[in-house]
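Reading a protein record of the kind used here takes only a little practice. Think of the row as the fold of the chain written in a discrete alphabet. With that in mind, consider the following protein and its fold in token form:
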Amino acid sequence: MKRFLPNSTVRIVRLIAIQCFMPLSLGLLLGAAPLVASESLLIGPGDQLHIQVADTPEMEQHPRVTDAGEIPVEAVGNVKVAGLTPANAATAIQDRLIAAHFMWHPIVLVTIEQYATQTVSVLGEVKAPGAYPIATPRSILDILALAGGLSSVADRNIVIERRSDPQNRVHYNYSNNPDAAVDRQVLVSPGDTVLVPRAGIVYVLGDVNRPGGYAMANNESKMTMLEALALAGGLSKTAKQSGARLIRKDSSGSYTDRKLSVGDLQEGKIPDIAMQPGDVVYVPFSFGRNLAVFGAGSIAASATSAAIYAVP
């Protein structure tokens, strides 16, 4: 003779089974990964959300976040979700459903269905600056590709301002090493701003083979005097090595003029000199004509019209 459990007991057993197995089944149903990665994208006003409650299809909603940062949730009223990750928003809704005695152990899933700001702004030293539409978070390399890549004088240290948290900027170094550039990628979300600054410029003028300005566009944004002279093609045959000058603008706006020997630098008799953005290296002709005519201010002023070259 078969024995049946009372209906109330059956309901309790079913509820326990749902609570034990629903997180796994819901995750499999929605394609969730076994391990949940930490989220950096926060919900903002104007975003449209998708709310699902396990085993309760009538609770499914597609609300839009109000300017006050709230969404209306059935049975509990408005819930503040702006500034939260989707996972934290789901927890907030679960807590409200429990506090209202509407559900015992709700399992809520919140996803961002549509972002209010569907573009990312890419500014500074890229080939095609502007606002580009994106619907989901994209890698920084994808975003730079949309803007045509870096310009020839771009600094490798890129700044990302988050729409959800403007005070905490993210810094990304676009390394010349491809493996490092890919491994250290960060995500850029709709509404973010990507700023690519201009690299510092060092000017090499006078009797060199290719006078002009050279961008400090390596990984460290650094350059030495010997590196600058090498980029300028080295000294010409008529250059006066012993009469080179390093002209640097100080914090007060005045110029310092340091005379040195390129030969001593090349032979290691004096240490190589770290350059600073805006520095001018001037190498006079052997007969000294330019040395007598030009002062530090005149040489620095002439640098402004020099051609700018990218570091190969």
